[in-house]
Specification:
single chain, 493 residues, alpha+beta, 22-stranded antiparallel sheet, 22 strands, 30% helix, globular
Length: 493
């Protein structure tokens, strides 16, 4: 019997000792987490205007669990040069490891340092959110803290319904799952807000405005490289949005997204960012596959870091970032310019990789790629410096005449203020405007007709221009551009 008692008592004693030891470490973990959060908040807030900070208000340590209160301070500048301050309080119940009771109850037996259960605290600032949540806590979060510093869990918001004299807002409950390595050197986020409905009043016209969002998603998978840059993809997605004003037909947007990614390419860092929309329905017209995608490639990481760090120092040199920029000295400007020119030594590429859209009858596309280089030493004027910075340029554009007709028709319909243009008159106007546009593009020499598509291409390198298959010098191209613009009446009399 004694052996059984010893066999039970020894593990319990070890667990108790581990729990007591973990309890002594939880407060330092919480304070370290606050410090790390403030570092990240400062980095994210540089140049954004608003300042956000986090502080640990109180910490009460117990044997099996502890209680903490955090305060989030937000300072937002106003138009009059002063600022408004807001404070939000969070309560946190921290269960000590290695075996928090809530995890044992769910059958999770892996030892951890602590289990956090945080929630928004009721205050005069958050009173309306609590009322809108109908008895639920508006925001709660569960975080597991590992002995290796890793944190993972989920953040949940309650369903909200807010109403006042200006209208109503309904928000469904949502969840964000997250995971962060020690010191936030790697971060993953994945969440979705299923529904958001707003019924408001337009103050200018008095007409009701209805906005409906469905499937608003967020995803991040970033890791910090040796220079502190967050590499990896991130995205914001939207399945559907409807906007309706008064009795007018709703504008419907489907499958929209913003994607960004920073990756290590063959010759340095490559950054891409793009807006994409699957479909837009407006004024009886449908647009598909809208895209606006930018790229910045071949960035030398250490020189980019030097430029960003110095820029942050300049922003932090004054009371506000705006005042710091307004009072920037000539020496600071020259230093930033010198650091920027060092980036050009690595010959980066700036690109509009894709811009375009489609209708039921045609498509339009544009791409522009600029290869940059260090300016020549004899470039003393701004124009000469900019010209010498351009190593090569490649631009290609195309637009179907049928798409021009669709766009012209949409513009003509929008001028009717909700009325319907006579179909015969609409066809006559769209045909005439399309022919006028096509004729000007062809007569000026800026486009070539390829079937029913207007196309243009411009390639520049080694001080030579190839425009629509025609070779010419830079001076000849400038003369051509000036002459065609003057002939079209774009330069006035």
């Amino acid at each position: 019997m004694k052996k059984i008692a010893v066999a039970v008592a020894v593990p319990l004693a070890l667990i108790g000792a581990a729990t007591f030891y973990t309890g002594t470490q939880v407060e330092s973990l919480a304070r370290d987490a606050v410090d790390q959060a403030n570092v990240k908040l400062r980095e994210m807030g540089v140049g954004a205007g608003a300042e956000v900070s986090l502080k640990l208000v109180s910490f009460d340590r117990g044997l099996l669990s502890s209680s903490a209160r955090y305060q989030i301070d937000v300072e937002v500048p106003d138009d009059e040069g002063s600022s408004e301050q807001y404070s939000i309080l969070l309560q946190d119940h921290l269960e000590h490891g290695p075996f928090p009771l809530s995890r044992l109850a769910r059958g999770q037996l892996m030892p951890v340092a602590a289990q956090s259960h945080a929630q928004l605290e009721r205050s005069p600032l958050t009173e309306k959110l609590f009322d809108a949540a109908s008895g639920e806590i508006p925001l709660v979060g569960d975080t597991t803290i590992g002995y290796d510093g890793r944190q993972y869990g989920e953040l949940r918001s309650a369903a909200l319904k807010l109403e006042d004299e200006e209208g109503s807002v309904r928000v469904s409950s949502s969840t964000i799952n997250f995971e962060a390595a020690k010191d936030a050197t790697a971060v993953r986020l994945d969440g979705e807000l299923p529904e958001l409905d707003m019924n408001l009043q337009n103050n200018a016209t008095g007409q009701p405005v209805r906005v409906s969002l469905r499937g608003l998603g967020l995803s991040v998978d970033n890791h910090e490289d040796a220079n502190g840059f967050a590499q990896g993809p991130s995205a914001i997605t939207l399945k559907r949005m409807e906007i309706q004003t008064g009795e007018a037909p709703a504008v419907i947007v489907q499958n929209a997204s913003f994607d960004a990614a920073l990756v290590e390419g063959e010759r340095g860092l490559d950054l891409s960012a793009g807006y994409r929309v699957g479909q837009v329905d407006a004024q009886g017209q449908t647009f598909r596959n809208l895209a606006l995608v930018f790229g910045l490639r071949n960035l030398e990481a250490s020189k980019l870091k030097a430029l960003i760090d110095r820029y942050k120092e300049v922003l932090d040199s004054g009371p506000t970032p705006q005042e710091s920029l307004a009072s920037m000295t000539a020496a600071q400007q020259q230093e930033l310019q010198a650091l920027g020119l060092q980036l050009l030594e690595h010959k980066p590429t700036l690109a509009l990789d894709e811009f375009g859209f489609e209708t039921a009858h045609g498509a339009a596309r544009l791409s522009v790629v600029l290869d940059l280089q260090s300016p020549s030493e004899d470039a003393f004027t701004p124009d000469a410096m900019i010209t010498s910075m351009l190593a090569s340029l490649k631009a290609d554009a195309s637009i179907d005449k049928a798409l021009v007709r669709d766009v012209v028709g949409l513009v003509a319909q929008s001028r009717q203020d909700g009325g319907q243009l006579d179909p015969v008159a609409l066809k006559q106007e769209t045909d005439a405007t399309t022919d006028l546009f096509s004729g000007m593009a062809l007569d000026s020499g800026w486009s070539r007709l390829e079937g029913e598509r207007l196309g243009s291409s411009l390639h520049y390198a080694d001080n030579r221009v190839n425009f629509n298959g025609r070779e010419m010098s830079v001076q000849e191209f400038i003369g051509f551009a000036f002459g065609s613009a003057q002939g079209a009446g774009l330069l006035g009399e």
